[in-house]
Amino acid sequence: MVNSCKVDKLRNLQQGLVRKTIHLLYEVWVKVRPLGSSSDCSIWNDQLQCRPNEIREAIFRLSMDLAYPAHLEPAQVRESFFRQMESDFEKFVLMYWESSPYLYRRKQSGLKMDPVFTALHDAFDLTTPDAIIESFIQGLVSCPAVASDELNIDSFLHEFHDSLGAAVKYRQDVRVVRTRGQTSTESGVEEHFFDDGMVFPDAAAFVDKCKYAVKNGFSIALRGMELRSEKVAAIASALADLFGQPSVGANIYFSPPGSQGLARHYDDHCVLVWQLLGLKKWKIWPNTRSILPRLYEPFHSLDDLVDDNGGRVEILHEGDIMYVPRGCVHEAHTDVDDGESDVNASTNYSLHLTLAIEVEPPFEWEGFAHIALQYWLEKEKLGRSSGPVRSKVEEQAPLFALLLHVAIRLLSDSDPALRQACMVAAKLPSSSNSHLNPLRSSQRSTFTEILSKIEKSCSFDEVLKSIKLAVEEKNDELFQWMSWLRHLPHQQQATEACRIDFCDVLGHFEELLNVFGSDRERARADYAEFRLRFCRSVVYEDACDGFEMLLRDYRTVRNQYMRGMLALHGKHSS
Questions:
Q1: Dmax over Cα atoms in the chain, in whole Å?
Q2: pTM score, whole prediction
Q3: What span, in angstroms and rounded, lies between the C-alpha atoms of 33 and 48?
Q4: What is the CA radius of gyration of the chain?
Q5: Of the candidates 69, 240, 228, which has an alpha carbon nearest to the alpha carbon of residue 562?
Q6: pLDDT, averaged across the chain
Q7: What is d(CA 305, CA 297) in angstroms, rounded to the nearest whole number?
Q8: Which is more confidently placed, 62 or 459?
Q9: In this structure, what DSSP letter does residue 281 have?
Q10: 295, 268 in Cβ contact below 8 A?
Q11: Of 147, 171, 328, 542, which sits 20 to 30 A from 491 (CA to CA)?
Q12: Alpha helices in 387-491 (DSSP H)
């Protein structure tokens, strides 16, 4: 019954009963879990009244809306990562965010006074290398990714209900890797201990192989720690709130002495590195490209991004935090000799957590511009809906808006501001005085500048050319980015014929070419008028409201997914 009903109906269940049921279901699942990997137990498997995957799905569903006790406020995490004052976080965002690396040296004497670091540090058994590996590798299940623009957890459950709680999968969940042959100019080659796509149903054997690999110079990189540890989940959720983003991903890296795990690379997301044990030497090159990399887009070659002398070298000690912006090439080693080695063998190893602040497409400034346009269009339509007669331009408003959406995208391919993270939902000081809130003031200024660029740069002919090419080739691949726009309000009172389907835009593009092709000059003039009206009359606060509504929808699904995965790792709320 739990697995067959809609997710929203589960919220009516009594929370105390739900918690007890989850605990019982998890105990049952732990006992039947070995049946899946043991040929001797097939006879018992046949006698089960429900399949193990049905138990796993019920655990996931019942956990999705439960509150977890390991909750942190954004202010607590801000103090751990960016010092005590609110102004320190603002300074970080204004001076370093998406621009240059930042290092926060933590005094060793003060680490025990930091409850966030202490809780995270105590989550691992740091006595020996083998104990460290066991403390984060044992009891793992696979965490398949939820689609980036999926706002309905039912869709995820429909796709993955058979594989929830499955054994970990290589590369998707974990990498065991070392890099060899790296020089000052060559990135080296990654050597992987396991084959791509390999799964590990025998958990004990997997742990033993990981221990053996580390003894032979391999590093372990485990993805999705926010889905496996409630303490990491609390930090990741608070950081997401602090930066005004839907979610933050977390990975844990364990490296033996004198090794390099991942090869030199850059990321399509910003990273906060928190050194939990030992030392690690990092080299970071500045981002030489004016345009930040987009999330999920193909990576460029590193050939033109590094040089022999341009890298910045930093050695992270226990408790230190370093920020690496997206697009900055970096590498990390444990071949550190600064006279601080210890008789305890574990201190020659390195354990660090990375927190990835992934800026999803709707939450870049480009996304904010799309949201502003769609909310403005709805407001305009509602303001004119009372009139008995609609002009031709008003009737074609959805098509002009579609043109302008494409124009904004084209502009973002060359304009750095549109690629940057929009911080309008970040947890900033509460004062409404702009002089006391330079970051809040800068967000409004950035939007004003973007509107000015849209007004001047988004040409009708360039947009029409890209649309015509897509229609002629019957190829909408370049416009798949528009699919998230379906989550915005669009022509709620329009007829089905006028409503834009952002998941299938080719038909609308054909209609657009037919409508505007007969009198191109008139269409160009009407588009210019529509664009000017948007840029001059859009209301910043309306766009902020729309942005935050969409952010809440994204967070709801990400949090449901996170809680479900935590429960499958035995971290159910008690």
A1: 85
A2: 0.92
A3: 12
A4: 26
A5: 228
A6: 88
A7: 17
A8: 62
A9: E
A10: yes
A11: 147
A12: 392-395, 397-412, 416-419, 438-457, 460-472
